[in-house]
UniProtKB/TrEMBL annotation:
<dbReference type="InterPro" id="IPR003593">
    <property type="entry name" value="AAA+_ATPase"/>
</dbReference>
<dbReference type="Pfam" id="PF13541">
    <property type="entry name" value="ChlI"/>
</dbReference>
<feature type="domain" description="AAA+ ATPase">
    <location>
        <begin position="211"/>
        <end position="395"/>
    </location>
</feature>
<dbReference type="Pfam" id="PF13335">
    <property type="entry name" value="Mg_chelatase_C"/>
</dbReference>
<dbReference type="InterPro" id="IPR045006">
    <property type="entry name" value="CHLI-like"/>
</dbReference>
<dbReference type="GO" id="GO:0003677">
    <property type="term" value="F:DNA binding"/>
</dbReference>
<dbReference type="InterPro" id="IPR027417">
    <property type="entry name" value="P-loop_NTPase"/>
</dbReference>
<comment type="similarity">
    <text>Belongs to the Mg-chelatase subunits D/I family. ComM subfamily.</text>
</comment>
<dbReference type="InterPro" id="IPR025158">
    <property type="entry name" value="Mg_chelat-rel_C"/>
</dbReference>
<dbReference type="InterPro" id="IPR001208">
    <property type="entry name" value="MCM_dom"/>
</dbReference>
<dbReference type="InterPro" id="IPR000523">
    <property type="entry name" value="Mg_chelatse_chII-like_cat_dom"/>
</dbReference>
<dbReference type="GO" id="GO:0005524">
    <property type="term" value="F:ATP binding"/>
</dbReference>
<protein>
    <submittedName>
        <fullName>Magnesium chelatase family protein</fullName>
    </submittedName>
</protein>
<keyword id="KW-0067">ATP-binding</keyword>
<keyword id="KW-0547">Nucleotide-binding</keyword>
<dbReference type="InterPro" id="IPR004482">
    <property type="entry name" value="Mg_chelat-rel"/>
</dbReference>
<dbReference type="InterPro" id="IPR014721">
    <property type="entry name" value="Ribsml_uS5_D2-typ_fold_subgr"/>
</dbReference>
Length: 503
């Protein structure tokens, strides 16, 4: 009996399952059978593997070749099984020994000339392999930087199949790429000092970063809404190691690591165009389910400009992740949950023409058109937005000032200090940010002062607030108290939070 075995990983969202690649070569009519619920891309592996072996001066077995991907009930997709299948065929054919590939996870797509190409999802695949007790991996050079984040594993990389075979037969190994694996937060980014004026909007951005509160910016074109939103990641604290791994894993699944370093500790910002579909926003797909913009913004900022121009239902699809911090996508191929804990920033013009500001003399829109335009932002969605801030046009005096405003570094120091205060307060809790305080805790342990609660209850009794709005204001008041150095939110903190909430 001629049998070869190698190990690979099948991904289901961010979760991976170990797949054993078994190859049997038997006498009979020459043919190739692939078993184990492969998709179209995986079914095409036969031709890629055959060409790669022949062009690497290896022999393709002119017999009946049966490839089984176990467990057979688990759907498999993608081209990351190519290298594993090729090595299992050579083991079954007697051209390679089995022992060197014991407890080694193999990930890589094969080019027709034998080169090893990168695949998506290497980091979550290696995490799954490590949890299964595998501590050695073989990947492509392009995936080496991402794979090296798994410092507990030994990572092998080779540019082509021929060098893999030379190593397995003789132990010769080419030097691995020399990478600086130190996680870095130093990236060229815009700075808040570029923003002229806009004191109120700048403060709202600082509050949003300090407590993780969602923000709506309403103002005419050119007032600076996009500038402020684009600079929000520069005042967010650097990601922790675990957070950075989560972000890298999501971007690896989506195939977007080309625009982001795997070792980056900078919070991501994702800015989908207002014409983006619901699938692009929350994730999905007909064959392989991929994360959407809200998951790519995990631990970062999701900025949607011209929010009222989004198609019907696109913004409302964000209501679930705004509440739960995750997004669950159900398709016929299965149900997958991606993380989606992001800071939402929406930007909108005050009217269709964008000139309804100040005294509104330049605006040509009717009152009905203005109401219809802003009405595209649904009530349930707006109820989940913590702050609504008017962004007025920059005045002539502000534009003439030669002194720059506060830099991102100065603001970030205050944000980090406020978050440290909150983290110390929540040391025995399961959450760390003010925006994550559960409703029950807001009514018991984390109530503001009595006068502040009386003010909120009056607003609730007059039906000027919903229950969710009351909780949002209390959470916001805790962030304002942290920035002001108060141990508990007072009436002034709550009133200011109410003003930011109601715009």
């Amino acid at each position: 009996m001629s049998l070869g075995q190698t190990t690979c990983v099948a991904l289901h969202g961010l979760d991976g399952a170990i797949v054993t690649v078994e190859v049997d070569i038997a006498d009979g009519l020459p043919m190739y059978s692939l078993l184990g619920l492969p998709d179209a891309a995986l079914n095409e592996s036969r031709d890629r593997v055959r060409a790669a072996l022949i062009n690497s001066n290896e022999v393709w077995p002119n017999k009946k070749v049966t490839v089984s991907l176990s467990p057979a009930w688990l759907p498999k997709s993608g081209s990351g099984f190519d290298l594993s299948i090729a090595l299992a065929i050579l083991i079954a054919h007697g051209a390679l020994p089995q022992e060197p590939l014991e407890d080694v996870v193999i990930l890589g797509e094969l080019a027709l000339d034998g080169r090893i190409r990168s695949v998506r999802g290497v980091l979550p695949a290696l995490i799954a392999a490590y949890k299964s007790g595998i501590k050695r991996a073989l990947v492509s050079p392009e995936n080496y930087g991402e794979a090296s984040l798994m410092t507990q594993m030994e990572i092998l990389t080779f540019p082509n199949l021929a060098q893999v075979l030379r190593f397995l037969r003789t132990g010769e190994i080419t030097s691995a790429p020399q990478l600086d694996l130190e996680l870095s937060v130093e990236e060229v980014q815009p700075d808040f000092s570029d923003v002229a004026g806009q004191t109120r909007a700048r403060f709202a951005a600082e509050v949003a970063a300090s407590g993780g509160h969602h923000l709506l910016l309403i103002g005419p074109p050119g007032a600076g809404k996009t500038m402020i939103a684009a600079r929000l990641p520069t005042i967010l604290p650097a990601l922790g190691i675990d957070q950075a791994l989560e972000v890298t894993a999501v971007h690896s699944i989506a195939g977007s690591l080309g625009t982001r370093s795997p070792m980056s500790l900078v919070a991501p910002i994702v800015s989908p165009h207002h014409s983006a579909s619901r699938v692009a926003m929350v994730g999905g797909g007909s064959h392989a389910i991929k994360p959407g913009a809200c998951s790519l913004a995990h631990h970062g900022v999701l900025f949607i400009d011209e929010a009222p121009e989004c198609a019907v239902g696109v913004l409302d699809s964000l209501r679930q992740p705004l509440e739960s911090g995750t997004i669950t996508i159900a398709r016929s191929v299965g149900s997958i949950t991606f993380p989606a804990q992001f800071l939402l920033v929406l930007a909108a013009n005050p009217c269709p023409c964008g000139k309804f500001t100040g005294k509104g003399r330049a605006c040509i829109c009717s009152s009905l058109a203005v109401r219809r335009y802003l009405g595209k932002l649904s009530g349930p969605l707006m109820d989940r937005i913590d702050m609504r801030v008017q962004v007025e046009p920059v005045s002539r005096t502000e534009m003439a000032q030669t002194e720059l405003g506060e830099s991102s570094a100065v603001i970030r120091n205050r944000v980090v200090s406020a978050r440290a205060t909150a983290e110390e307060r929540f040391a025995n809790e399961s959450w760390k940010l003010n925006s994550q305080i559960p409703s029950r805790a807001l009514r018991t342990t984390y109530k503001p002062e009595r006068a502040a609660m009386n003010f909120l209850h009056d607003q609730l009794e007059k039906e000027l607030l919903t229950a969710r709005g009351l909780h949002k204001i209390i959470r916001l008041s805790w962030t304002l108290a942290d920035l002001a150095g108060h141990t508990i939110p007072n009436l002034a903190d709550v009133q200011r939070a109410h003003q930011l909430r109601e715009g």
